[in-house]
Amino acid sequence: MPSVPVATDAASVVGIERASTTLAPAVFGSIQLTDVLAWVAIAAFFGALLLRWQGALEPARALATGAWVAFGVFWLTMVPYYYYEMQSPLQTLLAVAALPLCAYAGYLLWGGRDSLFLLTKAIAFMGLIYLPVETIPFVRTWLIETTAAQTHYGMELLGHSPGLVEGANGYESKFDFDPEETVTGRTTYIILACTGIGSMAIFGGLIAAVKAPLKRKVAAFSMAIGVIWFLNLIRNVFIGLASPWGWFQQEWLVSFMTTYMGAEPSRVSFLVAHNYIAQTLSVVALIGITYLLIKIVPEILEPLEEVLFILTGTEYDLFDALGKTDVRADGGSGRADPDQQQ
Prior knowledge:
This protein is mostly helical and 342 residues long. The chain is 64% helix and 4% strand. The chain has 13 helices and four strands.
């Protein structure tokens, strides 16, 4: 992604985005490196699933283990972007934690926890949904500029009509506020992560990976896409207005952010709106959407059990806890039998 101009910010959401080459070390900021690592990891995930489907369990374990490590390294390459350019503590922390967690998942799989193949399948589908959108130019352009137009329409409903011009990312996605008339002299532009495609890919991957009737899967996916789109629109409008109009330019906040967070004074409203308020609410929204999906496709509890085991080292039976034991893919409780999974 091109460097951000002095008076412009990228109003992005949590998700995979191209790394910047401006403030990050060259090797970690390489666009080619992040893209290659992502494609290699996702291709290896699918390769491992194919090998397992063919009955080659040991080679499948080995390939999946390598894929998990590569996926963790991919997230490590994103750390400089989140830390230096986005100045996002939450995204930086998650990216740093991804490598050891992914390596641990690979270690568990290598050691015989074959139930992790279902989570592997979910990650593979997440990548299959996301990566083509990022790497096919006309799809990426359409998605970014459509999101920008919809966000601008949302601003107009609130009495603001700055217009759209070409942003630093090369798309017509920058809100053309007059710096002489705004409080901070700054504006924002939409990038790929602002489209919500990252969150859509997460839920799409979970839904695609589990065994459930197609009708319920389609209903769950449609609900998730609709909710994410609506909440993401509100989020973009909020950040897009908070930055130029200085909604959070209170003196004590400016002093704290500049002294302890290294922020530029004029960026305080953007950073507070984007990195703290919006990202925190995004986590809440993800939890809420997950709860709604469980009502439609409770089968997604199975890969979520694996996520909890990786994080805590403790076995959880979410089906039993939520009274959904009748829909377990393995027909029982506790850790799933991998031979009865997909």
